Amino acid sequence: xxxxxxxxxxxxxxxxxxxxxxxxxxxxxxxxxxxxxxxxxxxxxxxxxxxxxxxxxxxxxxxxxxxxxxxxxxxxxxxxxxxxxxxxxxxxxxxxxxxxxxxxxxxxxxxxxxxxxxxxxxxxxxxxxxxxxxxxxxxxxxxxxxxxxxxxxxxxxxxxxxxxxxxxxxxxxxxxxxxxxxxxxxxxxxxxxxxxxxxxxxxxxxxxxxxxxxxxxxxxxxxxxxxxxxxxxxxxxxxxxxxxxxxxxxxxxxxxxxxxxxxxxxxxxxxxxxxxxxxxxxxxxxxxxxxxxxxxxxxxxxxxxxxxxxxxxxxxxxxxxxxxxxxxx
Length: 329
Fold this sequence. Notes:
By secondary structure, the protein is an alpha+beta fold. The chain contains six helices and nine strands. It folds into two domains: 34-173; 214-328, Immunoglobulin-like.
C-alpha cells in the first residue's frame, strides 16, 4: 500500500509539473504573439502618421510642384493608404485582440477613403474659376473620414490593445495617431485659404524636349537592404548612412537631383538630404545620404525616401518609398 501511494504521488507530481510546463510555454507563446502584433500595429500607424504629414504639407502649400506633380503625388498617397489597409488585414493576432484588429482595419480604411476623395477633388479646388469654391467645400467634407478614423483609433483600437496588455502584465505601448492635424480643416473657408498657395506651377517650363524622370531603386541602410512594407533590423552605428539607388528612366541627362530621407515622424523625425550631381539617361547611380542624428533603438521606425521630381517629370509615384526599421545597439 505504501509503495502504491508513493508511486501515485510521484506520478501526480510529474503530471502537475508537465501541466505547469505546458501552460508556461503557451503563456510565453501568447505573450510573444501579442508583442509581435503590437509592434506591427505600431509600425503601420507610424507609416500612417508619415502619410498625414506628407499630405497636409502638400495641402498647406508646401513645395513648388506643378498641377501634374500634385495630382501624381496624390495618386501615390492613394495607393500607399490602400496598401496599409491590406497590410493591416493580413496581420496575425491572438483571439484576445480580435476587437482591436477589426477597428484597426476600419481606422486605416477610413483614412484610405479620405485620401481617395481628396485626390478626386483637389484638382478642381486649385483650378481656379467657378469650380474652385465648390472644390474647397468638397475637400472640407473629405476631412470627415480622417476625423472619424482618429476617434475610432483613440476610443476603440488603443483601449482594446491596452486592455489585453494590462491583462497579460505587458508594458508595451502603441503610439498615438491623429491623421487630421486640426479641426479647422473641416471649415471650407479655412480650406480655401490654405490650399490657395498650391498648384499652377509649370514644372516643365525649363525642361529639355523628351521624357524626364527618375525612379527609386534599392535602398540600403547601414549595409542592410530595406524592404517596402516590412520591418528590418538595422545595427546602429556612429556613421550611419543610407544608400539610395536612383535610376534615370527618361531620355535626358538630369542634374542636381535632391534625394531626401526622413527617419521617424512628427517633431522627432530625422531629416537628411544629398544631391546627385548628374545622371545620364538610362543610367543608375547610388547616392549616399549620411544620417547625422541617432534614431531610437528597439522600436519600429518609419523611413521615407524621396527622389525629388526634375523639371518636366510627370510620373512621380515611383519616386517615393516607405520602409520601416528596428535599430539595434
